[in-house]
Amino acid sequence: xxxxxxxRGDINFRFVIxxxxxxxxxxxxxxxDAFVEExxxxxxxxxxxxxxxxxxxxxxxxxxxxxGFERRHVFNNTWFQKARVIATRTAGRYYSLQCAYPxxxxxxxxxxxxxxxxxxxxxK
Length: 124
What we know:
The protein has helices spanning 32-43, 106-119; strands at residues 12-19, 49-59, 62-72, 79-90, 93-102. It is of the alpha+beta class.
């Protein structure tokens, strides 16, 4: 889902499911730090992205990491976009909600991201 415009900037929300080809164990409190490090390496590997923090939450009824990142414009060097990744690993799959919006609109879009994460359910 997207709410992007020239006035508002780039705003999008994506729910992604991928197979865990490495067959890692389900996310637990014991392996949460390693899980976060995996995502930090994947989402903030360049000088234009930085990791800003993590909190525990739930996604699809299981423990998840709510990770925050910021992105910087390449040309003018200003931090302009907040990216949140709420992710978990269970039953051989990674599940992640990826939310991105301008830093100046974080107060408006943080609750939207949290609402989406709280409402996601798996059905058979």
